[in-house]
Structures are given as structure tokens and as C-alpha cells.
Amino acid sequence: MALYNWNKSAMPVLSALLIGQTITLFAFTGEVKFTPVAAGAPCVVKSKATYLSVVWWCPLSVDTILFALTNFRIYQLRKLYSQMSPLLHMLRRDGILYYGVICTTYAANLINYYSNPTQSKGAGTIRYTYEDMYKFRWLNVKVKLIRSNEVNLRPSPTVSVDTEGVMRDSARKERAILETFA
Prior knowledge:
Elements: H1 10-29, H2 49-80, H3 86-115, H4 126-147, H5 164-181
């Protein structure tokens, strides 16, 4: 929503998407069956592939729509201004990388659900992929901000004198860590 300046026409689209996804997930996964599992036995999914694939298709559709909206807005801003800002360039580059990794993971999970017999389905890997991509994206933002000197890492005047050395040391350590990833 920040890219669209809280535009009132984008909000209904995203709200309808959220409501539709919520209804779909509750409709397809509303029935829960509990089967007793013997101690030490592995946990496997014993259900039809089409039934569980909805859980992967819904977030994939949300990611696709958000990716399209973001790229469309970046394209509009690029046409409006003659030069694209470094922040928009980074959003586009990281968005493409994020979407590619997420789509690959969803595709792997969907192929797993459609091709394997019902007793050999694993639990997907999308949760871990989301976490890793989130960490990568924000680390990339911090590196970009530090390099462009847009972030003032010095303590503010409201910080007491006792903590000034500690804050300076932590800022130095943070810069050293970020430089190792650059």
C-alpha cells in the first residue's frame, strides 16, 4: 500500500484477495481428522493431493498479485521520473529474486503433492523459505541505507553520556557484520 500512497482503489482489491483466500482456506481445510499416532512413528499426510494443494495455490496467487502490483507501480514511477531511485531499483531486483525463489518453492511443493503417493508426502518447505527471504531482504535494505549514509548511527542527544560508548561500539560491530555480507 505504501507504493500506492494508500490509494483507495488498491485497497478493495487487496481486501477482496484476503477475504477470498480466507474463505477458500476455511472451505477446503475446515474438516480436521485426528488419527492416533504411535510413539516414534513419523508424521505423514494421508489425504488427497488436490485437497491439500489449495493450501499452496492461495498464497501463490497472493504473491503473484502483489508482485504484479509492485512491478506495475515501479514501472509507473520510472515513466514519471526520468531516473529510477536506488530504493526502487532495489525493490524491483529483490522482488524479482523473492518471487522467483517463492514460486520455485511452491512449484516444488505442488509437484510433491501431485506426483507422490499419499503416504509419502512431506511437510512443505515454504515456511523456511519465507523466513530466509525476509531476512535477506531486510539485510539488503540495511546495507543499502548504511552505504548511502541515510541512517545516522550516532546516538541521539536524548541518550545519556553513559551509553554513548556502548552505542558507538554496537554501531561499529553492526557495520563490520554488514560489510562481511557486502
